[in-house]
Each structure stands twice: as structure tokens, then as C-alpha cells.
Amino acid sequence: MATSALDPFSRLPTELVIAVFAHHAADEPLGPLTTRSVCRRWLHITDSTPVLWRRIVLDNTALKLPSLHHQALLYLQRSEPFLLDVEVRTHDPDRVLPILSPLLPAVSRWRTFSTAGFRNEHIQMTDLPLSSRAPDPLPLDRLVLTLYEFDFDELDDEPDTETGSAGKTRFPTFTEDGQMHLRTSALPSFLELAPLHFTHLTISEGILEATHTNAASILDLLLATPALRVLVFEGWQHDDEPLAYATPLPLVALPYLEVLHIRTTCITRRLLSRLDTPRLHTLVLAYLNVDFRVRSAEYTGEDGDSDDEAHDFSQSPWSDHATGMGLRSLIARSRPPLKVLEMDYSDMRTKDFQWVFDRLPELEEFRIVASDMSNRVIGLLRPTYNLDDGSVHLRVPRLRKLCLDHCQRLSGDAVVAALVTRARFTDSASDTHLYSKLADVLVSACEQVDGRHEAMLTRALGRRFRC
User: Which intervals of the chain are annotated as region Disordered (predicted)?
Assistant: First the structure.
């Protein structure tokens, strides 16, 4: 008997076979993988029919992560040029980013996105600016990771207090301003991720309950994000692992990073000491001061780890030490062209300020709030003259903007002596390519700066001075 008589399906026209396969793929997410494995003809038909591959169901309850990555890449390639319906099935919210990572570079092709398991979510991706069909498409370049130690997904199904609508997802994975926002209990390792192409990354420890993210996990994630231009970490003031048991820290190269913002944490030194950021131009350190001993200040043997010879007053000696040593390490390794340094409720020891000022020739703006910095520190901004050869040394020679806010240890006389002397020198300097004139000086809420000092600063700086 002929083979065709035994196998009526083989006599069907290709168009009908495709229709059958499409119906099968609609009911069975892995249907294309099944049909392509039957025979050579079915393999050819399946692989050459993109419509069969447009629904990508990544089921972490059935397959492990490497298999899901292989499946995602295969579907992504075979479905070209169709839009994709992407679904993630998992009971673990920490797996969402690793599962999706191979597909994120093609997010502009997504038609819908949905999740099942730990939460139920459905997003019409073509309504977002990330879609290629949007009037002004945006790249998916911003990732926000919010860390929680427990789950708030039951809130997703409650009525929205602002709109009154029921069943609306309050914390969508993809937002209307073009961000990807995930809530997780732990950061993924770079070993679990396809390379991420985000240029902006925010990691935030949830405000409802303190989490304990260590420096090792942050640095490990950063190994998967080499394209970053902006990095923000907002934490809690909890200590890191004991040094005797601390996870070894990788050295992370972020060759394009331009802005680094670290806020409210005790792991500043461990983070800064393991970053290589040769293009960093803006560094913001906020709410790092603590009055308790932090383990990251217990390093020994590095240049500068000795006690501060100035013995200046400090309400936060341990965090001052850690912040200063972390900044020393970052600058020594990367030699960044830092132009903006902001320190808000963040301090260093006097000798760290001197070390840093001596190595920031491009710094244009320095802003410090609620600091215990002493008169010795503000005095570092004065020009110093070498009587032997008449040469002049001026730290941070390109400084144009200076803000001193709530610096209660500074005397008015020290502020006037430093800034008036500096202004006279830079205003009269002929080497304008070496020295910048002070263009904007703000002194705010410094108790020891009174009306007399304000008058002297106004005479020297004119409209460039604000109080």
C-alpha cells in the first residue's frame, strides 16, 4: 500500500497543515516545538511559518531557566517580523527578570505581556511608548528594582483608591513612561541573566519593611549591566555582612556610567571600592551619616585607614571613615572626570576631604548639607603660596559652584577667609584655562555665619553670593 494512503495528513496542502498547526499552537504553548520534531516536512513548515511562534509562554513551573532562555531565543527568531504575545508563568517573582532577559531587547515587538502564578497581570504593550507602533517609540532603557522581604501582590486586585476601578494592577511591570519596574525579594545574579541593555538602573530597598541587601549581590547584578549611564541605590542604614564571612566582591567595570547616586546605606565603602567608572561626572552621596560603628570601616592596611590626624569633631566617625575610604578607592582606580559632587547628610574625615580635593581637577560644583566639616576643610579651598619659588597651588581649580548648607561647625571667619581669598585669586588670575572663577556661592543656615560675614562675602562676590 502507498505511503500516502497510510498517511492522509501528508496529502493535505501546506496551507491546511499550517492552519492545523496554528490551532494546535493556540492550545499548546510548546506546540511548534512538538510539530517541528515529527518529520522533515513538518520541521520545514513549522520553521518557515512565523505566525506559529508569536505566542511565547515561558513556564518556570515546567522548565528550568536555561531551557526557558533557549525557548525564548528560538521563538524570538522564528516569529520575525510578527508582534509577540509574551506570558510568564512562575510562582517566584524573583525569576521574572531572569526569565524575560533574552526577550527584553525586542520589547518593541511585544503585543501583550501577561503573568500568572505569583500574580495575574495583563498589559497591552502596543498602548505603551515602548511599542514600535507608538507615535514616538521609546527604548526600554530604565529598570527599577524594588526589594521587599514579603509579598504585596494581593494589593493588585484591590480597588484603585485614585480611580475607583477594581482589578487594576497598581504596580505594572511596564509603565506608561517607558520603565520596567519589578518588585523582588532578592537581586538576580548575572549568571542567571542574558546581558541587560538598560542605561538607567534604580535599586531601592522597600520602605514598608527594611530589607538587607548586601554589596555582593548589588555588584553581582551590575556585572550584567555594562551599558549603564545612571545608577541609583536607595537603601536602609543596616550593616553589611561581617567581614570574616563576607562574600568576595567582584570588580565591576561600568565604562559608560556618568551619574552615581547612593542614598541611605551603610555599604558605601564596599560598593565604591569595587566600581571602575572612568566616565563618572556626577556623584551624589545622601543620608550616609550614622552614629554607630559600621563593619565597612573595619578595613585595615589600606592607605588612609589610619586615624584622622586632624582629630576634628564628628557625630558620625565610622560612616565618615567608610565614605572617605570608598571615595578614595573609586577615584584612585577610575580617575573619573568628576564635575559634580553632592554630599547630603554625608561626611568624610578631614584628611579624606584633602585627599579627594587634591585629585579632582575637573570638579565644578560641590554641594554639602548638614556636615560636621571643620574650618580646616573649608580652608583647603584657599590658594596656598610657595614662598621659595612664588608658585600657587589651588585645590579643585575648576570649582564654580559651592553650596554650604547647615554646616554648623564652620565659623564665619573661616568661610570668609577661604572664599574671599579664593575669589580674589581666581578673579585676577590670567590663566583662565587653569582656574575658574566662583560663579555661584550659597551659604545657608550655617549658624556661625552672621550678618557681618554675609556683608564681606557680598562685597567680594557681588551677585554671585546668596545667603
Answer: 299-320
**Which three three-digit cell numbers place residue 9?**
495528513
pLDDT of residue 311: 85
Is residue 117 within 8 Å of residue 90, measured between CB atoms?
yes
Do residue 207 and residue 348 come from a single domain?
Answer: yes
Q: Is residue 165 assigned to a domain?
A: no
- Say how far apart CA 189 and CA 123 lie, in whole Å: 27
Listed residue (145, 155, 140, 214) closest to 183, CA to CA: 145
Specify the residue for cell string 501583550: 112
d(CA 144, CA 184): 10
What does the DSSP 8-state code read for residue 126? G
Same domain, 379 and 432: yes
Q: Could you tell me the pTM of the whole model? A: 0.90
What are 124-179's pLDDT values in tens digits?
999 999 999 989 999 999 999 999 865 544 445 444 433 334 445 678 999 999 99
Domain limits at 275? 199-361
Same domain? For 353 and 390 the reply is no
User: Does residue 59 lie in a domain region?
Assistant: no
**Co-location of 357 and 222 in the same domain:** yes
Cell numbers given for 427: 578673579
For residue 27, is it within any domain? yes
Helix or strand holding residue 78 (H, E): helix 65-78
Residues 135 and 295: their CA atoms lie apart, in Å, by: 51
Structural domain total, the chain: 3
Q: Are residues 464 and 349 in the same domain?
A: no
- CA distance linking residue 376 with residue 348, whole number of Å: 13
Instruction: Compute the average pLDDT of residues 332-358.
Output: 97
Mean per-residue pLDDT of the chain: 88
